Amino acid sequence: xxxxxxxxxxxxxxxMFRIYNYLDGDIYEDMNLFKYEKGEVIYKENDKINYFxxxxxxxxxxxxxxxxxxxxxLRFNKxxxxxxxxxxxxxxxxxxxxxxxxxxxxxxxxxxxxxxxxKDNIKFYRFIIKNLSHKLYTISNSSSINLLYPVKNRxxxxxxxxxxxxxxxxxxxxxxxxxxxxxxxxxxxxxVINDLTKKGIIIKENKEIKIIDYNxxxxxxxxxxx
Amino acid sequence: xxxxxxxxxxxxxxxMFRIYNYLDGDIYEDMNLFKYEKGEVIYKENDKINYFxxxxxxxxxxxxxxxxxxxxxLRFNKxxxxxxxxxxxxxxxxxxxxxxxxxxxxxxxxxxxxxxxxKDNIKFYRFIIKNLSHKLYTISNSSSINLLYPVKNRxxxxxxxxxxxxxxxxxxxxxxxxxxxxxxxxxxxxxVINDLTKKGIIIKENKEIKIIDYNxxxxxxxxxxx
DNA sequence: TATTTTAAAGGACAAATGTCATGTTTTTTA
DNA sequence: TAAAAAACATGACATTTGTCCTTTAAAATA
Lengths: 226, 226
Fold this sequence. Notes:
Two copies of one chain form a homodimer. By secondary structure, chain A is α+β, with helices and mostly antiparallel strands. The first copy, chain A, is about 40% helix and about 25% strand. Chain A contains eight helices and twelve strands. In chain A, the strands form three sheets. In chain A, strands 1-2-9-4-7 form a five-stranded antiparallel beta sheet. In chain A, strands 3-8-5-6 form a four-stranded antiparallel beta sheet. In chain A, a hairpin with a 5-residue loop joins strand 5 (about 60-65) and strand 6 (about 70-75). Chain A is elongated. At the A-B interface, helix 2 and helix 4 of A face helix 2 and helix 4 of B. Chain A binds a DNA duplex through helix 7.
């Protein structure tokens, strides 16, 4: 982690994501731009929270570690995401690990300063509520899906949800990670991929998964993840 | 559902749960007391939301229905719980079913009136944020637990979490429902109960599960659910 | 380039879980 | 109280998933 002393860049991002819509006044002087490199950890489970962040560039991986050593990827974040909303009013310790997937830029504000300076800022509160609601909405959904459907359906859902209509192939950075994301083992993911390949629904090519039969995939996905 | 015209009772509950800590002024005239009987549905998935509720008496069951007909109990609610916080600022349709477990009393406020009258009420916003944070915190936790641990551990966790230190037996209203709550089948829950019984950890007696060896149960639960 | 490391693929077997069926017990209700 | 319905219990078998291991392919590095 490295602090970036670049007032102009900071202001660019404030402008780009219209952060002035949620925050105002003298809070800007407390904003610091931080750069996290690939693999660097931003939040660590069970730590006390020091900074509230806006992710303005790069991608983050959010996951939990379990006592049995297993790791569960909860989601990815891309700009504009916020970190620390859960801990903003309640004094929880951090409960998920956040790691930078590539070189990321975050605007950080000391959480106590933020609490103090926004304690009457209804715009910011509204922003926080919308963010929390969205996260809750998303996780409620994926949580029940994960529990009730076998990996085959969850994987199909995942594929459908990362496709954007036009694109018909998916870069998989790493199958082990993908297996974690789906809460399963690499072995099982492999079986499922083979199964879908045999059935002519997908094809694996280099590091890509190509969709052959989108309709069948859609059927398998049962409209999950939406 | 029946509206209860009892100003005094309503005021009792407002007093009992200190609702004046979160709301104030002329919103009280918009509060209605509703009574829901056992089995009655308060929120139905995909419906538009009309009322925001405070649960002041009784217990509620929160669950989702999946396309394959399976049902997943997300949690139980007891007073003081709130319904509609997720939909308060975002215009989502309702995404979980809420059903009364016994005869329940709820204070309901027309959601649009509430939105209008609390749009500058930072106390209420703070209350909502705390509630959303708590729900998110809880569900993140249980969600990863459900995915990563077998039913045996989840069931042990469940038992530990519903015990309150002194009590050593648990009323199970219904094993099918309990199986749903844990996201498994009745058959599998039964196997697990038999297994724990054989190992001398619990005993099933009438409609109760008695804890024999709390320490072993605690070990099995791995401190999950907290 | 040669060597080492990491990722990928899949066989073999065991554990966890689900579905279905059938019999028993308990509860509800006519 | 007798009949019907609901809850409970469990065997048999199939499916899903995990663990462990070996081989091969690809990528990173000395």
